[in-house]
Structure formats: C-alpha cells, structure tokens
Specification:
seven-stranded parallel beta sheet, alpha/beta, 13 strands
Length: 367
C-alpha cells in the first residue's frame, strides 16, 4: 500500500510589530493553536518582543525580525527576508509592509499566494491609499468583523471573508479561577467591584470619556474600583484630569504583562473607544465569563449583545457610559450578564479560527 504524502505549505505571516497588542495577540494565539497538518509557519516583522519570540519558538515557529537594522532600512530588510524565506503563502497583517511586499512578491519565482487580514476600520490616509492601490494583488482578504468588511479600508478587496478571530478560551477560564489571587496582587479589596480597562493611551481609545464616566460611577457607588492598564502619550494628561476630578477609585497600572489575567479577574470590562476593529480585550473578557460595557464602536456589537453579555452605549457620551456601568453593577443584572458572557465564549474560541485558516492556506492558489 502506498503511503499518502501530504504536501506542507510554507506560510509566512507578516506583521509590522510583534508585541502585546490587538492584531499581534490574535496572530500569536492563532499560530499557537494552528493544527499544522498541511502548513508550516514562519513570522516576519520589523520588530518583535522577546516574549512573542519565545512563545512561538516553543512550538517551532521561527520569527525573522529586523531589530538589528537601522529603523529607516527595516522595511526593506523585511522584504529581503521574506524573499529569502521563499514561502508558498504570504499572509499580510499590516498595510504598510503589505504594500511593499505585494510588489516585491510579484517578481519572485515561484510567485507566492498573497492573503491579507484587515484588522481595523481605518488607517492614516497615505497608508490606506497605498494599501488599496496594491490590494488587487491579493488572492483572498479576511476582515476581522462585519464592520471592518464594510469599511473603506476593505473596499475593492478580492474574495472577502469575514472571520471573527479569537483567544485561548480554555486558558482564560483557567485564569478566571485565579481571580482572587490576581485581585490581591493589585490590592483590590474583596468587597470591591473591579472594573478593568486595558488600552494604550491614544486618542481613539477615549480615556477622557472613560475617566469622566468613572468619576460619576465612583461618586454613586464607592465600592467601584477602576484599574487602567496601558501606556502611551496621553497618560500624563489623563492622570492630571483624574487628580482634578478627585477620583480615588481610579488607578493607573502602566503596561501590564499578560493583561488577560487582569481581565479574567475583573467583575466588568469597560471600553470607551471611538473606533475599533474587533477588540481582543472583549474576546478575552467573554472567554473568562466577564461581561462588557462598551461604546458601540467597530465590531464590538458583533460580540456584545445588549442586555445579554454586556451593555452598549453611544459614542462620546460619558453619562451613558456611566449609566451602563452602574446598571451592570446591580447584582441581579450582573449575574445575568456573567451567564451570558460564559455562554458567548464559544464564538471567540481561537481553535475554530486556526482550523479555518489552515483550510484556507490549503485551498488558495496563485491567480
């Protein structure tokens, strides 16, 4: 009897930065869950954190990063590295590297298949124009939410699919069982209602809206404790405003490694963004059975069903956000929302996404 020979495709996943973050977390978690029956993987990026390199290296996935290059040359170094790797499939996750690699791959022999994932609803205009001008070279495009699929950044994409990505649900459930220990690490009293916000301090995350709402919540319910994880250019400005408001229940944690642990220990996740793709933090919350109160930004309404696993509020309205949080804090509401969050976990299971992508890689061909 002849043995069945399975041809392994070499897939190179290309992302701008491989660090703790939204798209980066989705990629790392998917690769860790990948079945690797018909594909082997490498990752190429401009820079990568030691944590991500080690996690991927532990399952045999090489990371080629350009950290040793001078910053102005990293993009060209990335293109050269991908060319040397000679992948069968290049999966592009960041629009700027994608624009260059689409062009350079055209001259490769054999020519690799190009797949793109769109992770957000907007980019800076020059980046978006470059991305759209070269996007016709892709064989398949994946949007992380229906909102992203409808956005201008996805307009004109070839063979567009919408796939909700996901997180390691089993790991988040395990972390939720350690909630008491994590809360003690951050000196959160047992009687407190812990509200967590995880996002870097950038304009689109609307921390200004969050802290106005938080001040109203703490004044109404002193047992509320807000922990804000993240760093960024607006952090000092937001901290000054918190001091002005006298909100003792709002604490800044800075950059928190493994922030998923913090989310799993929370009573509630809050999000105040002006726009999003499909936030990883929301998926991490649902996986841990933690309800969410969020502005109805980007793909959030595709995961949060108002009144079932969280509450959605209007963009830019701190009063409505505060009311949503206070409503979620009521014991009878909170119990129902937690149950809804636990029931929602299956839809954010990364294992399903990993299977889907492996099948896609097996089927795509150069047009």
């Amino acid at each position: 009897m002849m043995a069945l020979v399975v041809t392994m495709k070499h897939v190179c996943e290309v992302i701008k930065i491989l660090n703790v973050g939204g798209a980066e977390t989705l990629l790392v978690e998917r690769l860790l869950a990948a079945p690797r029956r018909t594909a082997r993987y490498t990752v190429a990026c401009l820079w990568a954190s030691d944590e991500c390199i080690q996690r991927l290296g532990a399952v045999g996935i090489e990371v080629a990063h350009m950290g040793s290059y001078p910053p102005p040359l990293r993009l060209f170094g990335l293109a050269a590295a991908v060319r040397r790797l000679r992948p069968d499939v290049i999966h592009l996750h960041s629009p700027l590297p994608a624009s260059l690699l689409r062009l350079t791959s055209w001259f490769s022999t054999p020519r690799p298949v190009l797949v793109s994932t769109v992770h957000n609803v907007r980019y800076r205009l020059p980046t978006m124009l470059l991305d759209r001008a070269t996007g016709w070279l892709d064989t398949h495009t994946v949007a992380v939410s229906s909102q992203v699929a409808r956005a201008v950044v996805s307009r004109g994409s070839r063979n567009l699919s919408t796939v909700i990505h996901g997180v390691n649900v089993e790991e988040q459930r395990r972390r939720a069982k350690e909630a008491g220990r994590v809360r003690r690490e951050w000196n959160v009293p047992e009687s407190a209602f812990l509200i967590v916000h995880v996002a870097n301090f950038r304009p689109e995350k609307r921390h200004d809206l969050l802290i106005e709402a938080a001040a109203k919540v703490v004044n109404t319910s002193p047992r509320a404790v807000f922990l804000l994880a993240g760093s960024g250019p607006l952090e000092d400005q937001i901290a000054r405003r918190v001091a002005e408001l006298g909100s003792d229940g709002v604490r800044f944690l800075g950059c928190v490694p493994h922030a998923a642990r913090l989310i799993a220990a929370a009573d509630l996740l809050v999000l105040s963004s002006a726009y999003e793709g499909l936030p990883v933090v929301v998926m991490e919350a649902l996986a841990a059975g933690v309800p969410v109160v969020s502005t109805a930004a980007g793909g959030v309404p595709e995961l949060i069903e108002h009144g079932r696993n969280g509450y959605l509020t209007s963009l830019g309205d701190p009063d409505e956000l505060a009311e949503g949080i206070l409503r979620a804090m009521r014991p009878e509401n909170h119990a129902l929302l937690c149950e809804g969050a636990r029931e929602s976990a299956d839809q954010v299971d990364i294992n399903r996404t990993a299977e889907w992508f492996e099948q896609l890689y097996d089927e795509v061909r150069v047009p």
